[in-house]
Amino acid sequence: MSFDRLLERIVETQNPTVAGLDPKLEYIPAYLREEQFRLHGRNLKGASQAILAYNKALIDALCDVVPAVKPQCAYYEMFGYEGMKTLHDTIQYAKSKGMYVITDGKRNDIGTTMEAYAVAHLGATLVDSEEFEAFGGDSLTVNGYLGTDGVAPLVKLCNERDKGIFVLCKTSNKSSGELQDRQIGDMPVYRVMGEMCEHWGADAMGRYGYSAVGAVVGATYPEQLEELRRAMPHTFFLVPGYGAQGGGAWDVLGAFDERGLGAIVNSSRGILCAWQKEGCAEQEFAAAARREALRMKEDITQHLPAITLP
């Protein structure tokens, strides 16, 4: 199962964190941008190539200490087809370095349309009699609020192709409670969604006790995070909200089980912009990202037991 591979990488690196690759042009050092503009023009292709060069340098600096990366599709889609090629190339490069890739697309539809999203990001497209992977991520974030019709096609593909999904459950944004905290009977919506994740994952269990159906649960709501960990023993958590959104190490601890497993904590801006925060030379951006990733690892793991597999 896909998350088995992620869990093994987390144990190998003793690091339950993921680097979010959400690059804006202003995050990229000027020398790197100008180099790509000279080669490709000051246009969407030049910008996309600058992002790819930036991402590759970050992956090189992080691949032995961080188990996974999480590219957010929107930051690539805004550069058109050149940006989408950079998304593809980033995913393939990260996988070539042994990293697990979470594609952050928050896809949401039903039937054959959802099947098409599943094939695009997790499966393979059939052209005549030959299959081609369009993007090739290991897992995908999805919006489950269309119910089973929107998730079942993904679960089927997860079982067939060793993939995983993370369903939005209790998200880290400020207004999430407008819907997710509403009551359905005596239970908030996020708890209902949590129960659905457990149900959807029941037929897609991995060897370490977690299913292929994970959940997105934000660090900015630590009480709910702890509540959901108790209620969802077989659901692996993707935890956004650490760092720039205000979540700290103490806020994420409730996501983990007694072995230090069960969750992976995301940092995007904190890692991507570490060189700007440090005020170091822009040529040191990748080294600064590595320093921040190691700082984050220590910040979280100092409060966890030694991370071990069952």
Automatic annotation (TrEMBL):
What UniProt keywords are attached to this protein's entry?
Answer: Decarboxylase, Lyase, Pyrimidine biosynthesis
Give the source's domain of life in one word.
Answer: Bacteria
Which pathway does it operate in?
Pyrimidine metabolism; UMP biosynthesis via de novo pathway; UMP from orotate: step 2/2
Name the chemical reaction catalysed here.
orotidine 5'-phosphate + H(+) = UMP + CO2
Q: Give one GO term, molecular function aspect.
A: orotidine-5'-phosphate decarboxylase activity
Query: Which enzyme class, named as a word?
Result: lyase
Statement: the UniProt record of this protein carries the keyword Lyase: yes
Classification via SUPFAM superfamilies:
Ribulose-phoshate binding barrel
The active site consists of K106 (proton donor)
Q: Does the keyword Transcription apply?
A: no
Limits of the Orotidine 5'-phosphate decarboxylase domain: 16-284
Q: Name one GO biological process term.
A: 'de novo' UMP biosynthetic process
Q: Which SMART domains does the entry link to? A: OMPdecase (SM00934)
Q: Return the EC number.
A: 4.1.1.23
* Signal peptide, first to last residue: none
State the family it belongs to: Belongs to the OMP decarboxylase family. Type 2 subfamily.
NCBIfam families hit by this protein: pyrF_sub2 (TIGR02127)
Protein name, UniProt field: Orotidine 5'-phosphate decarboxylase
Organism of origin is Ligaoa zhengdingensis
